[in-house]
Amino acid sequence: MKLILINGQGGTGKTSVAKSLLGKLKSSAYIEADSLVTTNPWEFGGKTDDLAISNAVVLVNNFLAAGFENIIISGLTRNQELLDKFLEKLNQPEEILFVWLRASENVRKSRKIGRDRDYADLEKHFAFINKVYPDIQSTELKSGKAIFIDSSTKSIKEITFEIMHNL
């Protein structure tokens, strides 16, 4: 089984790339971290992160039991701590590709304002979201591979090709 973890700040193309990969990879399943936990009141981090990780682990195991070979998860492991927690709970030696998408602040802001998908996409929250979801420069994996892709000027098709080349 291949586990593809797509991460990056808002507006870098995580969801679009994940959906593109889903269409290109045979026997694939997709998990969107934003859909794993919707609560009222909303809490960023803490128990919300723990719930998202626990829910993702259950879904990964369900997809494995159903015979899927490629599992794509978007937006779950935004830092080393969450990556480590997820892999520890998963407790399986999977083939892992960690993908970090990055884009310039202007590109991300333009994409987020244009899509206006949720509260986090409002321009007044941009600086706060950047602070709690910073652009990371590296990650450590005991097994697997990490790649960093600048999505500022690349198409979804180009990014998808680059990821598939690294599988």
CATH 2nd-level architecture: 3-Layer(aba) Sandwich
What is the overall pLDDT average?
88
Strand order of the largest sheet: 2-3-1-4-5
Strand content: 15-25%
- Helix percent band: 40-55%
Task: Please indicate the count of domains.
Answer: 1
Inertia-based shape: globular
How would you describe the overall organization of this protein?
This protein is of the alpha/beta class and 167 residues long. It is built from 6 helices and 5 strands, in the order βαβαβαβααβα. It has a 5-stranded parallel β-sheet with strand order 2-3-1-4-5, with helices on both faces. α2 links the parallel β2 (28-32) and β3 (70-74). α1 crosses α6 (156-165) and α2 packs across α3. The model has no long low-confidence stretch (mean pLDDT 88).
Short synopsis of the structure:
Helix content is 42%, strand content 19%. The protein has six helices and five strands, in the order βαβαβαβααβα. Helix 1 (14-24) crosses helix 6 and helix 2 (46-65) crosses helix 3.
List keywords for this structure.
167 residues; alpha/beta; Rossmann fold; five-stranded parallel β-sheet
Outline the fold blueprint.
Blueprint: E1 2-8, H1 14-24, E2 28-32, H2 46-65, E3 70-74, H3 80-90, E4 95-102, H4 105-115, H5 126-132, E5 145-150, H6 156-165
Parallel strand pairs: 1-3, 1-4, 2-3, 4-5
Helix pairs in contact: 1-6, 2-3
